[in-house]
Design brief:
By secondary structure, the protein is of the alpha/beta class. The protein has two domains: 204 residues, Rossmann fold, CATH 3.40.50.720; 90 residues, UDP-galactose 4-epimerase, domain 1, CATH 3.90.25.10. Helices cover 36% and strands 17% of the residues. It has ten helices and twelve strands. It comes from Hydrogenophaga palleronii.
């Protein structure tokens, strides 16, 4: 089995690569080679199954080495995320749309050479729903992206679904929620404060939160997201909706509830150490999430963390 991970040096990508090398794919499916690509990769890979392919995915010759031998599947994680996409929309378009279309073209070329269509697991985002959310979000909620990042991801979802219908690939797009906890580094993601919230309070340190205590959001732990990405690699296409896009099961909680869960898990007075300093833009983007229902994803076997305390425990497990 030969797979490719794009964005392999990112927060999710690094954890996914580790999991693939240590455990393979669900069902005991082992890897013979794992091609990984990003602008820069760690030096001297120690696992002989790794094929490092550092490079810029916006350049036409970057994809060729990954497809030199047929791929069984691809995890496409590479992107220009939210805040950076807003500040640099042209760069975001080139990476999020043009490079993705180039990937789809290579999948089509592989299939037209008589090889099996590869499974493509595309990392989309809940940002496709926009900022003005209805009282409940479910499988029938229309996408109405407000930010550049969400618009690009929705366009790519449509391209993945179209290519799947044509038989050029076998795609599934996962609308990922906020993922916790991200490392303390500048990533351009406006939701990064949630990772800082868990990290700082878990260590008993005070934290100034840019939302109100009642702000509600959706989030999943990194281990939970990795589990769902791996499940997407093997799930039967008959269990997927025609759109090939899924809103993943995830937790909804208020920031005050998250602080209380941190306190219970780590035995620290977390709720007492939060200073609430609401920022209207942050509150609007990340603090007004309604209840959600994810029947299609649950039917296909995808799962959430279960409860806030489990999310807190798992969120630092792979950090």
């Amino acid at each position: 089995m030969r797979w490719l991970v794009t964005g392999a040096n990112g927060f999710v990508g690094r954890a996914l690569v580790r999991q693939l090398l240590e455990h393979g794919l669900p069902g005991g499916r082992t890897l013979t080679q794992l091609a990984i690509t990003d602008l820069a990769l760690d030096d001297s890979p120690t696992d002989p199954r790794l094929l490092p392919l550092p490079g810029d995915l916006t350049q036409p010759n970057t994809w060729a080495p990954a497809f030199s031998t047929p791929l069984e599947g691809i995890f496409h994680l590479a992107s220009v995320p939210g805040g950076t996409a807003e500040a640099q929309p042209t760069l975001a378009r080139v990476v999020n749309l043009d490079a993705t279309q180039s990937l789809l073209d290579h999948c089509r070329a592989q299939t037209e050479r008589g090889c099996a269509p590869p499974r493509l697991v595309f990392a989309s985002t809940i940002a496709v729903y926009g900022a003005a959310l209805p009282p409940e979000v479910n499988d029938d909620t229309p996408a109405a992206p407000h930010m550049v990042y969400g618009a690009h991801k929705l366009m790519a979802e449509i391209a993945v679904a179209h290519a799947s219908r044509r038989g050029w690939l076998d795609g599934v797009s996962l609308r990922l929620p906020g993922i916790l906890v991200r490392p303390p580094a500048p990533t351009g993601q406006l939701s990064g404060f949630m990772s800082d919230f868990i990290r700082e309070l878990s260590h008993g340190r005070p934290f100034t939160c840019p939302t109100s205590p009642g702000a509600t959001t959706w989030a999943s732990s990194l281990p939970n997201v990795i589990h769902n990405l791996l499940h997407a690699a093997v799930v039967d296409a008959k269990r997927l909706p025609p759109s090939r896009s899924l809103l993943l099961p995830t937790l909804r909680f208020s920031m005050a509830e998250l602080a209380e869960a941190i306190g219970r898990v780590h035995a620290v007075p977390a709720a007492e150490r939060v200073r609430w300093a609401p920022d209207e833009r942050i509150e609007q983007l990340f603090g007004r999430f309604p209840p959600l229902r994810t029947f299609a994803a649950e039917h296909a076997g995808f799962v959430s963390d279960g409860d806030a305390e489990t999310l807190v425990r798992q969120s630092l497990a792979l950090a």
